[in-house]
Amino acid sequence: MNILVLGGNRFMGAALTEQLLLDTSFNITVFNRKGTGPKGVNIIKGDRNNLDDLNKVDFKSYDYIVDMCLFKPEQFELFKPFLESCNPKKYVFISSAAVGIEAFGDYANEKKEVEDLIKLTNIKYEIIRPVYVVGENSHRPRLGYYINQIQTSSPISVSGEGTEPINLVHVSDVVNLIIDNLFSSPKYSTIIVSNGQPLTQIELINRIKAFLGSNNGSIELNKDDSPFLNEKFTFKQTHSDILDLESMLPKYIEWFEINKQEKYGY
Q: Do 122 and 187 form a contact (C-beta atoms < 8 A)?
């Protein structure tokens, strides 16, 4: 079975390809600008914004396609003829639960535009909308920021008053849902991925402090460099065994302690 992952070399894309590689019957190919990916995948170096690079890919040879790095409608318009010509068994587009929420600006609006364009085609699709995705190897260490500020007794930036509830989801739960839906028979659906645990920024910080056994790090309100917006961002729990914050933290903190200097400069 041949699977193409557009992206596949950072955080969620890398986690997805690594999980897929556990099944030796899968032949995994990644297509990205850096020409990198986990050991064991086939790599095609290219930029999806470049028609010549898209022509490097024999799209018709893939049974399934997962699109991790599609953000703008013009990117989809360039890609659409290739997708329609190969007509895969399933095309999975990773969108965002921010769709429809004005505070997320152009990012949310453009993801919505892409979703609408996909729905106008005849391809068999699944649209997956994660909430704030956290976990090991993230290129944007939202939880790592809090951990570092607490451990170094540094100020902790909070958006607004930090009083609006948000949801998180661990990268492993998103990956598992992508794989489950990649091979399932239902098509033409949109799924939000969330752990369903409502936490304000203040609650999130205090729970991490409690887990670390530290009360260090003063909270500074109305800061633009906060890892989260002070915007309500809550959805129902995706499934019963999805990770809550306390279940995420042990492995994340262990990983962060080893990698924080090299990966984030902390």
A: no
Residue 164 — very low, low, confident or very high, per pLDDT cuts 50/70/90?
very high
pTM: 0.95
pLDDT at 41 over 80: yes
Closest CA to 134 of 4, 251, 261: 251
Q: Whole-angstrom Cα distance, residue 162 to residue 246? A: 20
Nearest to 87 by CA among 121, 53, 48: 121
Q: Which domains does the chain have, with CATH numbers?
A: 1-130 (3.40.50.720), 137-167+195-235+242-266 (3.90.25.10)
Which residues neighbour 59 within 8 Å (Cβ) at sequence distance 6 or greater? 4, 65, 82, 83, 85, 86, 88
Can you list the alpha helix ranges (DSSP code H) found in the chain? 11-20, 51-54, 73-86, 105-119, 142-151, 171-182, 201-212, 245-264
